Amino acid sequence: MRETVIVGAVRTPVGKRNGGLSDQHAADLSALVLNELLERTGVDVDLVDDVVWGCVSQVGDQSSNIGRFAVLAAGWPERIPGTTVNRACGSSQQALDFAVHAVMSGQQDVVVAGGVEVMSRVPLGAARATGMPYGPKVLARYDDFSFNQGLSAEMIARRWNLSRARLDEYSARSHALAAAAQDSGAFIDQIMPVFTDDDVISVDEGIRRGTTAEKLSALKPAFADDGVIHAGNSSQISDGAAALLVTTAENAVHLGVTPLVRYRAGAVTGADPTFMLTAPIPATEKVLHKAGLELGDVGVFEVNEAFAPVPLAWLADTGADEAKLNPLGGAIALGHPLGASGAVLMTRMIHHMRDNGIRYGLQTMCEGGGTANATVVELVQ
To answer: What are the Thiolase N-terminal domain coordinates in residue numbering (predicted)?
Structure first.
């Protein structure tokens, strides 16, 4: 198998719901990062074999293979194909895996992976508005569980004995770390500004400075009257796109581009779909085994903050160092543009690794239906 590297990683700012990116069509927003990726790497568009694009709510603006229409919106040659992947919140992380598989196997040489979600225009749950995706046999198997992620987050909090105070403290931490990262310029090199008719959007919009656990404690539970999950300890509804360029180490030399990271291993696994959001725990174990690494070898962990219990349960079960977990904040502060989030997290992690000389990074993402992707990358020194 060929050694596979990521040579470019760029994202838009993550816009808040009805914020600066809300007027952007998903294809047009995708086109911006596609073209910026080639501009930054200097790779000729004619060398691109395929575009693998993550998107979750594939209806309305995001229907009919948004990956293909992103390529056309970017003005790329019509011969370049595009496909759209849906593995729920892990869609663009899975897109990266598919791109790596194609390059690693020798079937393709240069593949773009990434994703998009403009949740301001295509609301969460829009794809289920006219039907029930689970079917009677699935519902019967799981005692007519509603497959509501908020209720799953409540179940996780109970099983792992995570109090409302602990969840809110963690959520305030996310905002504080994200604000510090933004102020230090940690996001500047990874973000491409988006020019709209009214403004230039150049920073992530979701950060709430001065957030404290005490302030969060005043928010009402969202899913159960006696629950612990609320808007402040859940990920934000967001808009955004991100793109990664994948090739071989040998081809990178030929193209004159500098690899950012080496793809060490990827894994995907399923878990109990009623708890739904716990699969990052076994996925982490699986990917570390595949990479031949121990937990202590990893210098940074990106565990998507769909709800605060997700990274906290992961932390409790793995025994990882909390200081290495989401050190720049996570989706609670920075937002969660569903189909783009896997590529956004990978872009954020890669740049953090390069800025701080971190050899190994591990990213994992909980996904609707009870699955999770996990990926390990290694810094190319």
So the answer is: 5-249
